Amino acid sequence: MTTPETPLRVGLAGTGPWARNTHAPALAAHPGVVLSGVWGRRAEAAEELAGEYGAAAFSGDAGLDELFAVSDAVAFALPPDVQAPLAARAAAAGCHLIMDKPVATTVAGAREVAEAAEQARVASVVFCTLRFAPQTAAWIAEQSAVGDWFTARADWIGALWAPGSDSEYAASPWRRERGGLWDVGPHALSVLIPLLGDVTALTAARGPSDVHHLVLRHTSGASSTVTLSLGAPMAAAGVEVVLRGEHGVASLPGWDGAVDAFAAAVDALIASVRTGEAHPCDVRFGLRLTELLAEAEAQAQARARPGAGE
Question: What pLDDT was estimated at residue 305?
């Protein structure tokens, strides 16, 4: 049990670029946290990253249990379908959760985590960057207070695999396999849902490369359109979210990197741990995102089959 004066012991599961660039530096610098250890699927990678911050290194199945034993919470920086069963296991061990988006790419996997967290009564936060980055979080709160939005458009167009791209994340096998729908789709939905309400109807179709187009209706009565891709040409890349309503037009501002955003997600977890109040962007919200993305994927695949449009 932590108190306001006691730092939260947070272990890190993952050693890839996202863990190195975002999770580890944010956790190590956070005044309310002690980095309790780093676990990796490769022992040498765990030792290298842990050594940078003077933390303990763990690997292998037994090492995962050892990480849970010395941690109050675990932050996951792993492919979604690797993190999901490990997060359920962490919850069963009594650890609070900071999960990456998407929490899983199957509804069953996401539900397993949500049920494990509920049964163990642990707090959880799903790190959807725009919900925690200071600039965009403030904008979402402001526009939510305005309300009465008529329609919205969200475009998240990446050029991860375009010639000239130097992104470390281009080598990610799960991103190659699942594309922009699963990697950047959670970002778009995590903005639209708090502004317009949950999704009541969804239509999805494929475009070129890994492009997915979504048309959504929301509980507020508003509609929105979403275009997602990681496979666009470099000159076509960009992120836009535009709201239109009786008060005018509002556009999502830019934000500065992910480290500050992740620190804010850690703040949110600490608050949830200490108050017992669930955060709006918790694992149940992560499950809802997975349900919507799985439905979009199924619809798009069905429409892409030969003869589907006849």
Answer: 78
pTM: 0.95
Query: What is the domain count for the chain?
Result: 2
Return d(Cα 75, Cα 83) in angstroms, integer.
10
Amino acid, single-letter form, for residue 102:
P
pLDDT band at 1 (very low <50, low <70, confident <90, very high): very low
Identify whether residues 222 and 110 lie together within a single domain.
Answer: no
State how far the Cα of 66 lies from the Cα of 140, in Å rounded to an integer. Answer: 39
Q: Are residues 20 and 123 in the same domain?
A: yes
Kindly state the average pLDDT of the residues 247-254. Answer: 97
Q: DSSP letters of 250-289?
A: EEPPP---SHHHHHHHHHHHHHHHHH-PPPTTSHHHHHHH
Looking at residue 306, its pLDDT comes to 72
